[in-house]
């Protein structure tokens, strides 16, 4: 590879890094903020944002001088979702779960040290769950994340148990590594994972893994509710419905 090609590849990596940073900023970010977060010179950041804006990957809001992810990113994301069956194939299954539970149903996969929400069906009641498709969340504070970690292959599960950052998102988050290991072992024994205000105050959830033919999780499906609506026991009563859905999703979705 020539020096010129090497520089071009490096710039592509920097541009993709800016898109990742913008994905974590739902209200948008200024060029200066992005430059600081990315550790790039302002001039480089500004030039890359200009190129990304021109091609539709980024939108610029002149009033607040802020950048947001553009529709081109959404289009690509939808194509990936369709390719993996997360949109059309999974949706009827999630809808049937919500019809039975009358609560939100969420489908997630693992993306590195996070879970990625790939599809969601809101419940008919007014209180709305905020984990929309495209949302990246912590593995250790969510039911979907714990279900995936617990049923990863042995080597990857052990790596996550040893290396996953255990940051506190609420006062109820698990931050002790021994406690997290014990929690994951319990999830493996019982076949489902719970979240009780560990990720967001006022919310609880229960999730089960979606297993491939080797018995390893390639996704997880959850029911999420506000704490005032269901007790934990009432929420866990939905586990058989989720397990039925997980078996159907395992048969329908391309396994990874």
Automatic annotation (TrEMBL):
<dbReference type="Pfam" id="PF09339">
    <property type="entry name" value="HTH_IclR"/>
</dbReference>
<feature type="domain" description="IclR-ED">
    <location>
        <begin position="72"/>
        <end position="255"/>
    </location>
</feature>
<dbReference type="Pfam" id="PF01614">
    <property type="entry name" value="IclR_C"/>
</dbReference>
<feature type="domain" description="HTH iclR-type">
    <location>
        <begin position="9"/>
        <end position="71"/>
    </location>
</feature>
<protein>
    <submittedName>
        <fullName>IclR family transcriptional regulator</fullName>
    </submittedName>
</protein>
<dbReference type="InterPro" id="IPR005471">
    <property type="entry name" value="Tscrpt_reg_IclR_N"/>
</dbReference>
<dbReference type="InterPro" id="IPR014757">
    <property type="entry name" value="Tscrpt_reg_IclR_C"/>
</dbReference>
<dbReference type="InterPro" id="IPR050707">
    <property type="entry name" value="HTH_MetabolicPath_Reg"/>
</dbReference>
<dbReference type="InterPro" id="IPR011991">
    <property type="entry name" value="ArsR-like_HTH"/>
</dbReference>
<keyword id="KW-0238">DNA-binding</keyword>
């Amino acid at each position: 590879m020539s020096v010129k090609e090497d520089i071009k590849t490096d710039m592509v990596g920097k541009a993709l890094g800016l898109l990742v940073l913008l994905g974590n900023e739902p209200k948008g970010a200024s060029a200066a903020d992005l430059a600081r977060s990315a550790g790039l010179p302002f001039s480089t950041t500004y030039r890359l944002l200009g190129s990304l804006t021109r091609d539709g990957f980024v939108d610029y809001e002149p009033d607040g001088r802020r950048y947001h992810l553009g529709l081109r990113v959404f289009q690509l994301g939808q194509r990936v979702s369709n390719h993996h069956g997360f949109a059309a194939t999974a949706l009827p299954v999630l809808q049937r779960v919500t019809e039975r539970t009358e609560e939100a149903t969420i489908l997630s996969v693992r993306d590195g040290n996070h879970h990625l929400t790939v599809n969601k069906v809101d419940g008919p009641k007014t209180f709305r769950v905020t984990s929309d498709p495209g949302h990246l969340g912590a593995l250790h504070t969510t039911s979907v994340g714990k279900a995936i970690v617990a049923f990863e292959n042995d080597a990857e599960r052990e790596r996550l148990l040893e290396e996953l950052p255990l940051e506190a998102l609420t006062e109820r988050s698990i931050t002790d590594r021994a406690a997290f290991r014990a929690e994951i072992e319990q999830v493996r024994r019982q076949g489902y994972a719970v979240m009780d205000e560990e990720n967001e105050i006022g919310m609880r959830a229960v999730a089960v893994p979606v297993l491939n033919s080797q018995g390893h999780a390639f996704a997880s499906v959850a029911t999420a509710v506000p704490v005032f609506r269901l007790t934990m026991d009432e929420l866990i009563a939905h586990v058989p419905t989720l397990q039925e859905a997980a078996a159907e999703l395992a048969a329908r979705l391309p396994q990874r």
